[in-house]
Amino acid sequence: MKTYNTIIVEKQDPVGIITMNRPDKLNAMNLEMKNELSDALSEMEADDDIRAVILTGAGKAFSSGHDNKDPLENMPEFANLKEEEVLLNLDKPTIAAVHGYTLGDAMQQALLCDIIIASENTVLGFIGPKVRALCYGAFTVLPTIVGRHKAAELLLTCDQINAEEGYRIGLVNKVVPHDELISAAVEMAKKIAQWPAVSIKYTKRALRTTLANETHKQALNEGWPLVLGAMDDQK
Q1: What is the pTM of this model?
Q2: Which residues, other chains included, contact 144 with Cβ-Cβ below 8 Å and sequence gap of 6+?
Q3: Positive or negative: CA dihedral 48, 54, 59, 65
Q4: What is the CA radius of gyration of the chain?
Q5: How far, rounded to the nearest angstrom, does the alpha carbon of residue 28 sit from its chain's CA centroid?
Q6: Highest mean pLDDT among 77-81, 110-114, 208-212
Q7: Which residues of 21-30 are buried (b: 16+ CB within 10 A; e: fewer)?
Q8: Distance between CA atoms of residues 224 and 98, nearest Å
Q9: CB count in 10 Å sphere of residue 2
Q10: Cα 9 from Cα 2, distance rounded (Å)
Q11: Distance between CA atoms of 220 and 61, rounded to whole angstroms?
Q12: Residue 222: burial class (beta carbons within 10 Å; 0-12, 13-18, 19+)
């Protein structure tokens, strides 16, 4: 496995585990991390020994979201959906094992996974407008999971909810004690991995057909230059 600066990649056959590893910054996501996540996901897609992938975070949080100290000029590339499309289009099942703060861009990462298992201490939130940004990875996916009205409430109010509320509205598949989080994710991954890979692959492809569309991308292409301009004005 390749060595990375902002993530840790490991194998527990037949499971690959990607851990966001900036714990001193609550795993805030910068451009380097996004690019490394994309590379690691592609690496796992190409590894026939890996049948399922877990995404998690080191330390006290899954991730607090976008690193606002990342240079503003990195933002267009950060938000270009390259890494999100790799995650969404991965043919192998993906499980987000979330805990602590799971906000903004990090919540979008979890949302694009097939299954979310949450520690009982998890705080979930889409905080785009609160930080003068867009929750660009959630626009089409979130309504299909929790319904349009609940998605609008979460995206427009920037409310943060706990794991149990996430489970109640169908955003989270399972809530477990914090010290059981990774073992629960591995157990789920192995349960899926026992079935024929080709069946899982095409089941995933069928499930994701409604999750991304050109209207979504058009809204982003129109909105991001305006949002970035507003960010620049705040400097």
Answers
A1: 0.89
A2: 210, 211
A3: positive
A4: 17
A5: 12
A6: 110-114
A7: bbeebbbbbb
A8: 28
A9: 8
A10: 8
A11: 28
A12: exposed
**Separation CA 102–CA 104 (nearest Å):** 7
DSSP helix/strand/coil, 54: strand
Tokens found for residue 49: 């020994």
Q: Which two tokens stand for residue 52?
A: 């399922």
113 burial (CB, 10 Å; 0-12 / 13-18 / 19+) is buried
- Please write the tens of the pLDDT for every residue from 31-87: 999 999 999 999 999 999 999 999 999 999 999 999 989 998 998 888 888 898 899
CB neighbour burial string for 115-125, b if at least 16 within 10 angstroms, e if fewer: bbbbbebbbbb
Q: Give the β-pairing of 123-125 and 160-162.
A: antiparallel
Distance CA 17, CA 94 (A): 10
Domains and CATH numbers, the chain: 7-233 (3.90.226.10)
Q: How confident is the model at residue 235 (pLDDT cuts 50, 70, 90)?
A: very low
Q: Are 29 and 101 in contact (CB under 8 A)?
A: no
Q: At residue 125, what is the residue type?
A: G
Cα distance between the two ends of the chain:
40
